[in-house]
Specification:
149 residues; mainly alpha; 6 helices; 68% helix
Length: 149
């Protein structure tokens, strides 16, 4: 397959994935979490059973890896304030308090799973620093609420 055919195939996969699975997710962090969960941490390969009905595993891996990298970059392009707003919006759709979610994410270092493999260390460090700061602020809200009461 030549590079133009590969590009076209990846474009079709990305379009289908974004329209059928990412379009219903309202936050950048939610979309980033979704695509990162499609990655097998041991092999580094992205898999998607429904897309495999129409496309090769290699093509799916390439396209989802591209999506992951783009979503990661998009998150970093936002201001810290927007990153916080987006993370809070994502947490609002989870059946647990934002403070509890933030504390769990910090405890298990969940934000590391959101970083694409091969991301430059300076971008990985910036993302983890930003996310850890925001999560720490959210987790601390529970403490400040109970202290104020």
């Amino acid at each position: 397959m030549n590079s133009l055919e590969r590009f076209e195939q990846n474009r079709r996969i990305v379009e289908r994935y974004t329209s059928e699975w990412l379009a219903g997710i309202d936050s950048d962090v939610g979309r980033l979490a979704h695509v990162s969960m499609l990655r097998d941490v041991s092999s580094g390969r992205y898999v998607h059973p429904f897309l495999e009905e129409s496309f090769s595993k290699t093509a799916i891996h390439e396209a989802l890896q591209y999506c992951h990298e783009e979503l990661f970059q998009r998150t970093l392009e936002c201001s810290l304030e927007l990153q916080e707003w987006d993370l809070r919006a994502y947490f609002a759709g989870i059946d647990a308090s934002p403070e509890d979610i933030a504390a769990r994410w910090l405890e298990i270092e969940f934000p590391r799973t959101l970083v694409p493999f091969g991301a430059p260390s300076y971008l990985r460090d910036l993302f983890l620093s930003n996310t850890t700061l925001i999560l720490s602020l959210i987790a601390a809200e529970h403490v400040s609420q109970t202290t104020a009461a």
